Input
Amino acid sequence: MDFALTDEQQLVRETARAFAEREIAPRARENARRAHFDTELVAKIAAQGYLGAIVPREYGGPGLGYTTYGLIVEEIGRADSAMRTVVSVQTSLVCSAILRWGTEEQKRAYLPKLCSGEWLGCFGLTEPDTGSDAANQKTRARRDGDRWIINGSKMWISMGNHADVALVFAQTDPDKRHRGVACFLVDTAQDGFQPTEIHGKMGLHASDTAAISLVDVEATEMLGEVGDGFKVAMTALDSGRFSVASGCVGICQGCVDESVRYATEREQFGRPIAAFQLVQSMLAEMKVKTDAARMLTWRAGWMKDQGLPNTTETSIAKLYATEAAQWCANTAIQVHGGAGYVDDHPVERWFRDVRVTTLYEGTSQIQQLIIGRSLTGINALVPS
Ligand code: COS
Output
């Protein structure tokens, strides 16, 4: 067993840390305050090669493995979860799906543009009435000659207002349930594709989130065959959940760093608050959760790199890292006291931004059911 990173991984990690601290972190507070989706910053992230890290060189990416990709996502997640969401959606939900399910022609047509940031992509799975029960797609697709016509609506779609291409999941035959779902590659520049920005989010203010109405949207391409759509979604989520977990490890680490810094500088009762046992207890617990989250996430990444089945281990990493990051952000505010309640310190933003991570890409409860099923062999979602 080897817990050490390779020299290349160390270098990638240091470079990502330096980039995130130089380019992303300084803009995070202002972007969040203004609810500004920073396309200029997205372009810089793309130029750095971070929008398709797992995509092989022949399709325009740097061809990194998952473990290395996770290191990049951790650093971006530590700096700003809004930008981490861009990286996760573009790389894990969109690029990984095209890489896994696309034809050679589709890979060559889409991946270089997505990796370079020339195009942004979004992942249209969730609907107003379809969340955890992802197979129950209400959006309908009907064949019309050699094209498909899609009608329905999508909800909570990250980058939905800015995407050039959308993966749209739709039901072609309701009687077939998940075996009727198809995943269409949709050009968003058509009148029937109508995104609307969602306002009033608790966090991720600098992230673009859309509700999308689909009225007679046309598509001529899909990933895989009719009926493969649900599996396209599940395999993409196996990658996406790893990415969310990695970003949450970054938040955990940020909470440790900021809390230690604050606690050693801030004095009360004539001593730095770090000298108090109750504060050290909080710091220690944060550190333990951070290390545990990282180890579970690295394990999932390593299994992906080995080509081993890893759905359960990815769910374990996602469940643990997102819950740990919430706990760490909450506790980091406790260490900061009143100072942590305003956005002078990043802990305030982390606390709000992290809340969604136990909801999106599968709630904590869905991860528990996936883990429970792998232990018992019983699908709790199917009435016995
Ligand atoms: N990789 C590949 N295939 C998978 C898979 C995975 N991770 N998970 C399931 N499948 C396949 C199954 O093997 C099964 O295949 P067959 O049709 O050949 O038998 C098929 O998909 C249906 O799987 P299952 O019976 O497990 O589907 P369920 O309806 O029970 O749903 C859960 C399973 C709950 C796990 C799924 O609906 C889910 O992840 N829901 C959460 C959705 C989500 O995360 N939404 C948030 C999106 S935010 S971007």
